[in-house]
Design brief:
mainly alpha, globular, 236 residues
């Protein structure tokens, strides 16, 4: 009951913000770009070890990421370029945040950790490959939204990990960013493998049919070549 009331209140607030932005005539692509600028700010905060503040700013940055599409739909300005631009900017946002975390763990100091740098790098590669695998599958007309760790889940995990980076080290409920990095490093690539398997399953029958057709054409062409060669020999 309480959770439902909170959800309704959040939707009302979000709808009011969307209507206000739509009335302001702001370009939805500008909202997308503002989200990128905020994520760059998050990267700087991560680089300086301000994880808690970075987590708060990430919440705001991703609100803009949610708003751009809704404002575009409300104003009737949904375009293919807008979808393309949003996807490209999302990739930049993902990458810059992970780079900020890597800079922090690579810097000399008490928190210097080559292992965490590596984990963050692995998570970064997985994040990019999740998006790439879906894009490549969709270029084959295959819907590929399978897998646990899509962008919203990755963002939520990073926010949770960031917001725990505060308070005493002895508290068992705080400072969970290393665990979050492990989860991101493993689950992102698990999602990529899942998408590869899903695409293989969807393309299995069409590929079999295509291979049979190619083999049939090849055999036909081979037979014609042999007939022509035999005809040439007989008429020499």
């Amino acid at each position: 009951m309480i959770s439902e009331a909170i959800a309704i209140a959040c939707r009302r607030v979000m709808n009011a913000v969307v209507r206000a932005l739509a009335r302001s005539r702001i370009n939805p692509n500008a909202l997308t770009f503002i989200g990128l600028v905020m994520n760059i700010g998050c990267a700087f905060l991560y680089g300086y070890g301000r994880f808690f503040l970075a987590g708060l700013l990430m919440i705001l940055a991703n609100l803009f990421d949610m708003l751009d599409g809704r404002v575009a739909r409300l104003r009737g300005r949904v375009t293919q370029f807008g979808a393309f631009f949003d996807s490209v900017i999302d990739r930049y946002s993902d990458i810059v945040v992970f780079v900020g975390i890597m800079v922090f763990y690579a810097s000399p100091g008490a928190d210097h950790s080559p292992l965490r740098v590596a984990l963050t790098g692995i998570a970064l590669v997985g994040s990019v490959m999740i998006s790439y695998s879906r894009a490549r599958a969709e270029s084959l007309d295959i819907a590929c939204k399978v897998g646990f760790l899509e962008r919203p889940e990755r963002v939520v995990l990073l926010i949770i990990g960031s917001l725990t980076e505060i308070g005493p080290q002895s508290n068992p409920f705080l400072h969970k960013m290393p665990q979050v990095l492990w989860a991101l490093a493993v689950l992102s690539h698990w999602t990529v493998v899942h998408r590869i398997y899903h695409t293989w399953g969807e393309m299995r029958e069409p590929d079999k049919a295509a291979v049979k057709a190619q083999a049939s054409r090849a055999n036909s062409q081979s037979g014609e070549t042999l007939v022509r060669a035999d005809y040439s020999v007989q008429n020499q």
